[in-house]
Write a structure and sequence with these properties.
elongated, Arc Repressor Mutant, subunit A, mainly alpha
């Protein structure tokens, strides 16, 4: 008995838009809470380089988690992230994840 493999279905990537939602998304709420706490802890000191600090805090776990989900496959991970493989490799090197 011969079983023919069915052609692979190409499913569209999952997309969602937070902007269309009236609900607060959990990740957004976590970021807001963390930033509010950060500003409270400044105790009169000025905040500097906040953008870079937040990006670094979010990017590392983002790349770690996506690489785990992709089973270490950089091509698949880059597709999930919507970035090029060369950009992914640079980010992995920055965060010592490669």
């Amino acid at each position: 008995m011969t079983v023919e493999a069915s052609p692979a279905r190409k499913e569209p990537p999952a997309r969602f838009s937070v902007a269309k939602s009236k609900q607060t998304e959990p990740l957004q709420e976590c970021v807001r809470d963390a930033l509010s706490s950060y500003f409270r802890q400044l105790d009169g000191h000025k905040a500097t380089d906040l953008y870079q600090m937040v990006i670094a805090e979010v990017e590392r776990p983002l790349f770690e988690t996506v690489m785990q989900h992709a089973g270490g496959n950089q091509t698949h991970a880059a597709r999930i992230l919507g970035i090029s493989r060369s950009t992914l490799r640079k980010k992995l090197a920055i965060y010592h994840l490669s």
